[in-house]
Amino acid sequence: MTVTAVRKDTEALTMTLDAEFEASPERVWQLWSDPRQLERWWGPPAYPATFTAHDFRVGGRSEYHMTGPDGPTPTGYWQIIDLDPPRTMKIEDGFGDDWPSEMPGPGGMNITIEPIGDGRTRMTIESTFPDAAAMEQLLAMGQEEGLTEAVGQIDAILGEDALANAGDRR
Amino acid sequence: MHVAPPDFDRMFGALADATRRDIVRRAIDSEEGIVELAGHYPMSFAAVQKHVAILERAGLVRKERIGRRKVVRTNLAGLLVARRLLDQYEELWRGRVGRMTDLIADESKETHR
Prior knowledge:
The complex is a heterodimer of chains A (170) and B (113).
Chain A: E1 3-9, E2 14-21, H1 25-33, H2 35-41, E3 49-54, E4 61-68, E5 71-72, E6 76-84, E7 88-95, E8 107-117, E9 120-128, H3 132-142, H4 152-158, H5 160-169
Antiparallel strand pairs in A: 1-2, 2-9, 3-4, 4-5, 4-6, 6-7, 7-8, 8-9
Helix pairs in contact in A: 1-2
Chain B: H1 6-14, H2 18-29, H3 34-38, H4 45-57, E1 61-66, E2 69-74, H5 76-112
């Protein structure tokens, strides 16, 4: 198991995940900086990501879409806020202008990469969200359809009435 | 060290009982205390209090003070939404980290060939 710790804060809407790799910090950095490598892990195999732009420098912008059974999604973008290779990156992950409806604000990713000895490297990623709506959309953008259905279990248990009311109160 | 999100089990456990499901539904838009809630069920105050405690530990309801009264409220916004989304976000990133690991492993195989 390469994920060694996960911390979630439901009040602040953050998730922090630690992962360890048998590789140097420079190698882990490449997974982010090289768009062809990035495409191999950002989306799942059945819902792959294509990065049509990847200007990986401070102030730079990337654009990507996912391709599912129904074709490509509208675009997501990365705005590179800060980079300190091969140690830290701060990226804004948001929605492009080509979505049919108004989209929530962008999420954020703060990545820290550090050597931990024996040729191993720890990557810590902190994901932040402005609100639950942004979290929901970014999730939908990052995973194949169907995975979200698992979460429908609680909805089914509680019944539709409860959720209709919940929707009103949200 | 973290494994699976433990609160999901607790949440499903809490919802496995018909009375507790009913309390959760009722407490979405009512402002009843345990005494009033107990009036809806053919069981003792203490039994209802126990059910509420189980729901509270699962994060499905919380007690709020309205004036001098303490009412039971369903904690929908906080948990059914945020927690579930964060749990899914964790799964999403576990998938990504798994693919990153495979990429690194593929490459070192190639260089050792």
